[in-house]
Structure formats: structure tokens, C-alpha cells
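Lab notebook, bench 4. Still working through the backlog of constructs that have no structural model yet. Next entry is a single chain of 348 residues. Request: give me the C-alpha cells for it.
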Amino acid sequence: MIILPINYSKSEGVKEDMNTKTVRISIIGFGNVGGGTAEVIRRKREEIAKKHGIDIKIVGIADLKGVIVNESGLSEDAIMKLNTGEKPADMTTLEVIKEVEHEVMVETTPTNVENGEPGLTHIITALESDRHVVTSNKGPLALQYRKLMQLAAQKGKELRFEASVGGAMPLISLVRENLAGNGIISIKGILNGTCNYILTRMVEEGLPYEHVLKEAQERGIAETDPSKDVEGIDTAVKLVILANSVFDRDVTYKDVEVEGITDITPEALKLANDAGYVIKLIGEVDRNGCQKVAPRLVPKHDPLNVGGTLNVATIKTDLAGDITVIGKGAGPIEAASAILSDIIGIYS
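Model written out:
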């Protein structure tokens, strides 16, 4: 749990202005990304009010440790109480979403690719309660994208999810807004920083997969159970979100052809290196129906050859040519930057 110095008292908050619109939000799931979202709002609240004319107030937080609510804006003390396990508000998460007056529900609970819960129910409940939704949660989008988008349209509300693919990389908004006049031919790239770190280290040090995986776990880059990353499932889930949102499909991650990195050896990496290539785990989706995740040979000079935990994606278009975006694909502040951008985008 992240402790955040948030105080929305009148003396320290944004000065009231007739041209400033108050936007009240709830944060459902207060782990790294939810905490990071509160932190970036604390940092940027006054700047956003001046630049975009919206005053963002966090009025509710729901987490496994409890629920806190204050429709005037949550204080640092209230968040401290949540962190210590005290439950100041006798409400359930769904009651917060339905009953607390706010405009945007930010859903940042962990991804569940089996059934999408609890995020799926949170998102449906928020939309049915006439809230806009901003989420970093990949599970509901990978399983029920069309249903959720239809519900949002029916309710006249926004469902935004930039943080669900590529973290801080402006990938979905880039396609939908800046490249709106283009036909998108394909999107391919590295969408999992854990795999990229492992492959980069294997090349740099000539070390076997198991050794580098352990190193990544010790550094907190890989999970204790890294299977969703190294087996390509995380990349496949992100690819599905791109397939559905960019190419208007109705697929789930089970429709993606997936191969991970667990069988890649130092010898294979050396052979590729000697021939002028690197091996990267590449996710690719195109307008002809391709949805594939697999280790691929990438020329060393190719824009997709990025190292460490970076993510990268090349968008092939019919007018603008190839556009490549590189950025941090994970991290609480990086993901929160995409969430904040989505909140602002709703009111722009």
C-alpha cells in the first residue's frame, strides 16, 4: 500500500473558479496503480485545473483493506486510516460505485483473465450508475470488450483504457485521435517489459533463462509466478484489446496464437546476434486477422529493438507510414499518467 499526502481542504485545494469544473472520482483498487493515480493527482491537481479547467477530487477509495468516502475530497488522514486497516466507512465497493456522488470511476484492481472479476462487475456497475470509467484492468476488456463498449454507448458514457496496453505509451489514443484519418494496417511490438528484460540480459551476459528469471524476480521485475508474462499471456491479452479497439473485432485472448520465451537459449540468441539480429517477444495484430504472440528475429537497427523493460510498438498506416512509440510499459506512476490523461480526455 502506498501512503499518499493528499489533502483537499479549502485552504490547500484548487482555488474556486467559475471556469473550473469539479470532477469527482472514485478509485477502486488501491494497490500500486491506484496509489499511483492518487499521487499524480496530488502532484498535478492545480496545474490541471489551470491548464484544462477541471478540478479533480478523489471522493472515494475502495480496497481490500476497507472503504473511505468523503464527497468533499479525501484527506491524508483518511487514507492513513485505510492503510492501517481501519474501515471508516460502512460500505461495500459496489455501494461506493453506485451511491457516492461522482463522475468517474477509476478501476485499478488486478487483472483476472479467467473471468474478468471483480473488475468486470465494477465497470458494469459504474456504467449502469451513469459514471464514466477509466481503467488499467486488462481482464474485463480482453473478455467482454464489445459488451462493455455497447453498455457505455447506451448510457452515453466514456470507457477509456489507455493504461491497459503499454502503460505510459500513448498507443490507443494515438491511433484513435492523432491518426484518426489513417487506415491502420498493423500494430506490432514488445508489450511486456519482463520478457524484454530477460531477453536483453540473456544477450548481454550470455546467461541461461532460469538464471536471468531469478535475477528479475529478485529485482521485482518479474512476479513470483511469472507464467503470465513469460508464456506470452500478458502480451496476448494486450493484443486482444488492440484487436478489438482498433480493428473492431470481438475476440478474447483465447483466440490469439501464443508462444512464450521459456525455450529460448543463450545459443539461439548468440546465433541471432552473429547474424545481425536480436530475438524479441513480439505481439502482432493486423487488419487481415492476424493475432499472434511469438519470439521473432528483429534486425538490430529496427526501431523494435529496445532493451531493458521498455515497451515499443510500430503502427503501420496507409497515409502516415510507420509510426513507432517507445516508453515504459509498467510502473505505478507510468500507468497513472495514462489514467490521468484519460480522465482529462473525457472532458476535453
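Notes after review: The longest helix spans residues 32-52. The chain has a mean pLDDT of 91. Flag for follow-up if needed.
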